[in-house]
Specification:
The complex is a heterodimer.
Chain A (H helix, E strand, L loop, with lengths): L6 E2 L4 H29 L4 H20 L1 H7 L1 E4 L3 E6 L3 E8 L3 E7 L2 H5 L2 E8 L3 E8 H17 L6
Antiparallel strand pairs in A: 1-2, 2-3, 3-4, 5-6, 6-7
Chain B lengths: L4 E2 L4 H13 L1 H7 L7 H24 L1 E4 L3 E6 L5 E6 L3 E9 L7 E8 L9 E7 L1 H14 L22 E3 L2 H9 L4 H13 L3 H10 L1 H30 L4 E5 L2 E6 L3 E8 L5 E6 L1 H6 L1 E7 L13 E8 L3 H5 L22 H21 L4 H4 L2 H15 L1 E6 L2 E8 L2 E8 L3 E9 H6 L1 E10 L2 E11 H14 L1
Antiparallel strand pairs in B: 1-2, 2-3, 3-4, 5-6, 5-11, 6-7, 8-9, 9-10, 10-11, 12-13, 12-17, 13-14, 15-16, 16-17, 18-19, 19-20
Helix pairs in contact in B: 1-3, 2-3, 5-8, 6-8, 7-8, 11-13
The chains are: A alpha+beta, B alpha+beta.
C-alpha cells in the first residue's frame, strides 16, 4: 500500500473563504439596515442598532483574519482503507471514515466553487456525513471513483 | 403472482383512531363555537366529518398490498398514488402490533422498516392484516438473505419460522414489578405536576400559610409526598401494561421480542442488523444491581421503548447479565470485561464544566430574585457531583480485536455499549491546545441508531489511550 499523503486543500479555497466573508458582511449590512428602519419607524432601542453595527464590523474581520489559520490546519488524507480529515489547531479535530462504511459521495459546488473549478465533497456513512470543503475537480472525481470501487468490493451490506 | 389485497375492514378503526389523534383540536374548535346558525359551525362540522370518516375510509380503500416472492409491494394514496417496493433483503425490522380487539379475528397491524432515512413513518404500515402475513414476510426474508453456501448458526434446525427454535426468555412477575418500581419515567410526570403547582395563585398560598402556619408545613410536605407517589404509581402501572408478559426469543438469525397487555407489540430484528448493544442502569438500578439491555437498530420500530431503543431485557441482576444474554447475542463478552484502558485521569475538568454550566442560571436567578437566589446555590454541588459521576464512569477498551466496549455516565445513568468494529460508522478525536499540555483528548464514536446517529462521547481521556483506539479503528476498518 502506498504511503498515505497528508494533503492540504487547494490554495484557491482561500479566495472562496474570502468571498464568503464578504458575503457575511453584505448579509450583516442588510440586517443592520433593517435594524435602522426599526429604530426610525418603530422606536426600537438605539442599542440594538449599535450592537448590529459592531457585529457587522467584527464578524467579517474575524472570518477574514482566521483564513490563513483555517487553511494551514485543514488537511485530509485518503488511503485504500479510509478517509481521514483534520482541522483546527486550537481545537484540533481528526475524523476517520473507513471506506467500507461509506454509503454515498456527493460532489456539490455553489457558484463560487464552480468559478474556481473546485467542488465540495460530502462523504456520508449510514449515520454521519462529513465534508471536505473544496477539492480540485479531477481529485474529487478520483476520490469518488475510488470510494465507489472499494465500496463495491466491501459490500457486506452493513447498515 | 398474488393479487393486490386490501387490509381487513377493522383496519378502518386504526385509520380513524389516527385521524382523531392528528386532528382532535377540531372538536375543541367545534365546541367553542356554540352558535349553530354560524356558517363557521357548519364548515367545521363538515371538515370534522371529512377528517374523521371520509379521509380514513378513502385511505383504507386506496391502500392495497401484495406479498411477492422478491418484494413487498404497497400501493397507497388518494390523489397522489404511491407505489412502494421493499425488497426482503433490505428489511431492518418487522413489527406487528395487535390491539386486544383484533385478537379474536386473528388480525394485527404490520409495520416494516428499512434503513432509509425517510423520517416519521415506517416504509410500510398495514393496518389490519391476517397474522399469517408477518410469518410469510419472514419466510421470504429468510430465503432472500440466506445464500446456499452461507452457514447458518447451529441452532437453525430448518424449523418453520414462527416456531420457537432457539433460546427463550419470559419475564416473571417479580422482575416485571422490580422493573416498574425502579423506572425513573415518573420524573417527567413529577415535573409536570410541579409545574402545575407553580401556577397556583400566590395570594392563595400566602393566605394558606398565614391562616394555618402551624399546619402549612405539614400540608406542603404531605402534598409533595402524595404527588410523588401518584406520579410513581402512574408510571408503574404504565410500565406494567407496556411490558406485560415480555418475551425474548431467538429464532435462527432473528431476535424477536413481544410485550404488552392491551396491545401486543412484536418486533423481529435480524441479528446481523444490530448496530450495538447497550446495557443501561439508572441510579436506582445501580444501587439494586439491576440492568436493562437494549439494542440499537437502524429502524424506528422501537420508538415507544425507553430512549427509543429496543429493550431486549427489561431488568436483570448485574452478575447474571452476560450469561443470560450470550445465548441470544453470541458476540457479547462472557463476563463484564476490563474497560480500564480508556480512563479519565482527572475528574476536575468535568466538575469544572458542569459547574460553569449551572453558574450562569444561578447568577441570573440571584439577580432577578435576590431573596430566592441562595436556593440556586444547591445546584452547584449537584453539578459538581454530576461532573464527578461522569468522569468516574467514563471507560472503554477493546473487548476483542474486532469489538469495542465503551462506558459513559450522564445524569446518574450509566451506559455500557458494545459495538462491533464493522458497525462503527466513523470516529473522531478532538483536543484543544491546552489539552496537549495535560495529555488529554476527547473521543467520539458514531453508530447508526434509528434514522440518525448515536454519538458516543468519551471526554477528557488520556490522550495516548484515545489515540491507540483511534489508530486501531483506522487499521481495522
Amino acid at each position: 500500500m502506498a504511503q498515505p499523503k497528508n494533503h492540504q486543500l487547494p490554495p484557491r479555497i482561500k479566495r472562496i473563504w474570502g468571498f464568503s466573508a464578504l458575503g457575511s458582511l453584505v448579509g450583516l449590512l442588510v440586517i443592520s439596515g433593517l435594524l435602522w428602519l426599526t429604530y426610525t419607524f418603530w422606536d426600537w432601542s438605539v442599542w440594538v442598532l449599535v450592537f448590529g453595527l459592531i457585529l457587522t464590523v467584527i464578524e467579517p474581520c474575524i472570518e477574514l483574519g482566521l483564513i490563513p489559520y483555517r487553511y494551514r490546519f485543514t488537511r485530509y488524507q485518503i488511503t485504500d482503507l479510509a478517509v481521514e480529515m483534520q482541522s483546527g489547531f486550537i481545537f484540533q479535530k481528526r475524523v476517520a471514515i473507513p471506506i467500507a462504511r461509506v454509503q454515498n459521495v456527493t460532489l456539490n459546488a455553489g457558484p463560487l466553487l464552480q468559478w474556481q473549478k473546485l467542488t465540495k465533497v460530502s462523504i456520508a456513512t449510514a449515520a454521519t456525513s462529513h465534508d471536505i470543503e473544496g477539492l480540485e475537480l479531477p481529485e474529487a472525481e478520483r476520490l469518488r471513483e475510488q470510494i465507489m470501487r472499494l465500496a463495491q468490493e466491501a459490500r457486506h451490506d452493513q447498515a | 403472482m398474488t393479487k393486490p389485497k386490501r387490509t381487513h375492514p377493522l383496519g378502518l378503526i386504526q385509520h380513524i383512531a389516527k385521524s382523531i389523534k392528528d386532528y382532535w383540536y377540531l372538536v375543541i374548535i367545534l365546541f367553542t363555537n356554540p352558535d349553530h346558525d354560524s356558517i363557521w359551525f357548519w364548515a367545521i362540522l363538515v371538515t370534522l366529518i371529512g377528517a374523521f370518516l371520509i379521509m380514513p375510509l378513502a385511505k383504507w380503500l386506496t391502500l392495497t398490498y401484495m406479498i411477492d416472492a422478491d418484494a413487498i409491494v404497497i400501493h397507497s394514496g388518494i390523489f397522489v398514488r404511491h407505489h412502494e417496493h421493499i425488497p426482503y433483503s433490505r428489511i431492518q425490522t418487522v413489527q406487528s402490533k395487535q390491539w386486544f380487539y383484533l385478537k379474536p379475528f386473528k388480525l394485527e397491524e404490520v409495520l416494516i422498516e428499512t434503513a432509509s432515512h425517510a423520517d416519521h413513518a415506517p416504509e410500510a404500515r398495514l393496518a389490519a392484516v391476517p397474522i399469517t402475513v408477518a410469518t410469510k414476510i419472514e419466510r421470504y426474508r429468510k430465503a432472500a438473505t440466506t445464500t446456499p453456501e452461507a452457514t447458518v448458526p447451529t441452532d437453525d434446525t430448518g424449523a418453520v419460522t414462527g416456531e420457537v427454535s432457539g433460546p427463550h426468555y419470559q419475564i416473571n412477575t417479580r422482575d416485571l414489578v422490580k422493573f416498574g418500581l425502579t423506572s425513573l419515567i415518573f420524573v417527567p410526570f413529577l415535573l409536570v405536576l410541579l409545574g402545575l403547582y407553580n401556577k397556583i395563585p400566590r395570594s392563595l398560598t400566602d393566605n394558606l400559610i398565614a391562616d394555618a402556619s402551624h399546619v402549612a408545613a405539614v400540608l406542603l410536605i404531605g402534598g409533595a409526598i402524595v404527588i410523588i407517589l401518584v406520579a410513581w404509581l402512574g408510571a408503574f402501572l404504565w410500565t406494567l401494561t407496556r411490558y406485560y408478559h415480555f418475551e425474548l426469543t431467538r429464532q435462527a438469525d432473528n431476535l424477536v421480542t413481544a410485550k404488552g397487555l392491551f396491545q401486543r407489540n412484536t418486533i423481529t430484528a435480524p441479528l446481523n442488523r444490530l448496530q450495538a448493544v447497550r446495557i443501561k442502569q439508572n441510579i436506582l438500578r445501580q444501587w439494586l444491581h439491576l440492568q436493562t439491555v437494549q439494542v440499537l437498530l437502524a429502524s424506528k420500530a422501537a420508538s415507544s421503548d425507553d430512549d427509543n431503543d429496543l429493550v431486549i431485557m427489561p431488568v436483570i441482576s448485574a452478575p447474571a447479565t452476560y450469561t443470560t444474554m450470550r445465548p441470544f447475542i453470541n458476540w457479547l463478552p462472557e463476563k463484564h470485561p476490563d474497560l480500564g484502558k480508556l480512563r479519565v485521569p482527572h475528574s476536575w475538568y468535568q466538575i469544572r464544566n458542569a459547574m460553569l454550566l449551572v453558574a450562569l442560571p444561578v447568577a441570573l436567578l440571584w439577580w432577578l430574585l435576590p431573596s430566592w437566589g441562595w436556593l440556586g446555590l444547591i445546584l452547584l454541588p449537584i453539578a459538581a457531583l454530576e461532573g464527578q459521576y461522569a468522569a468516574h464512569n467514563t471507560a472503554g477498551n477493546l473487548v476483542t480485536p474486532r469489538m469495542l466496549g465503551l462506558q459513559t455516565g450522564h445524569f446518574w445513568t450509566r451506559e455500557v455499549f458494545y459495538v462491533p468494529v464493522t458497525k462503527i460508522q466513523s470516529m473522531r478525536l478532538k483536543r484543544s491546545v491546552w489539552m496537549k499540555r495535560t495529555q488529554l483528548a476527547h473521543l467520539t464514536v458514531n453508530v447508526r441508531r434509528g434514522n440518525g446517529n448515536q454519538a458516543i462521547h468519551l471526554r477528557y481521556l488520556s490522550a495516548t489511550a484515545a489515540h491507540d483506539i483511534y489508530t486501531w479503528y483506522l487499521e481495522q476498518a
